[in-house]
Amino acid sequence: MTTQPSSDLVTFPNPRPVRDFTIRIDIPEFTCLCPVTGQPDFAKLVLEYVPDELCVELKSLKLYMWTFRERGAFHEAVTNEILDHIVAATSPKFMRLRAEFNVRGGIYTTVIAEHRQEGWQAPELVALP
């Protein structure tokens, strides 16, 4: 196999750093292992962020997500770990990671973790008629 998992998150310059805009990335096939049973856990991840100077490159993000396939991790821990790594790579103004794990034993788990750059305020929502 030529493509391998990689923990290297590649970035590129924000093409419009003077404007706040939101990037939303849906990751519908995230997998990791239950640290108790070793069985696979499946989740849909939704990453939303307002970039500052850097954006995350999508292929590197895909390869990064692949690094969790053989790792045991609690839902809460893996969600926060992923957020921490992407924040460290991009230093965004705002970032939210929503991890919606598939049912296990009749229970669904959703974990939402956020990062907010100190002093950053979300722009006021404009409602159009």
From TrEMBL:
<keyword id="KW-0521">NADP</keyword>
<dbReference type="GO" id="GO:0008616">
    <property type="term" value="P:tRNA queuosine(34) biosynthetic process"/>
</dbReference>
<dbReference type="Pfam" id="PF14489">
    <property type="entry name" value="QueF"/>
</dbReference>
<dbReference type="InterPro" id="IPR016856">
    <property type="entry name" value="QueF_type1"/>
</dbReference>
<feature type="binding site">
    <location>
        <begin position="75"/>
        <end position="76"/>
    </location>
    <ligand>
        <name>substrate</name>
    </ligand>
</feature>
<protein>
    <recommendedName>
        <fullName>NADPH-dependent 7-cyano-7-deazaguanine reductase</fullName>
        <ecNumber>1.7.1.13</ecNumber>
    </recommendedName>
</protein>
<comment type="similarity">
    <text>Belongs to the GTP cyclohydrolase I family. QueF type 1 subfamily.</text>
</comment>
<comment type="function">
    <text>Catalyzes the NADPH-dependent reduction of 7-cyano-7-deazaguanine (preQ0) to 7-aminomethyl-7-deazaguanine (preQ1).</text>
</comment>
<feature type="active site" description="Thioimide intermediate">
    <location>
        <position position="34"/>
    </location>
</feature>
<dbReference type="InterPro" id="IPR043133">
    <property type="entry name" value="GTP-CH-I_C/QueF"/>
</dbReference>
<dbReference type="GO" id="GO:0005737">
    <property type="term" value="C:cytoplasm"/>
</dbReference>
<dbReference type="InterPro" id="IPR050084">
    <property type="entry name" value="NADPH_dep_7-cyano-7-deazaG_red"/>
</dbReference>
<feature type="active site" description="Proton donor">
    <location>
        <position position="41"/>
    </location>
</feature>
<keyword id="KW-0963">Cytoplasm</keyword>
<keyword id="KW-0671">Queuosine biosynthesis</keyword>
<dbReference type="InterPro" id="IPR029500">
    <property type="entry name" value="QueF"/>
</dbReference>
<feature type="binding site">
    <location>
        <begin position="56"/>
        <end position="58"/>
    </location>
    <ligand>
        <name>substrate</name>
    </ligand>
</feature>
<dbReference type="GO" id="GO:0033739">
    <property type="term" value="F:preQ1 synthase activity"/>
</dbReference>
<comment type="pathway">
    <text>tRNA modification; tRNA-queuosine biosynthesis.</text>
</comment>
<keyword id="KW-0560">Oxidoreductase</keyword>
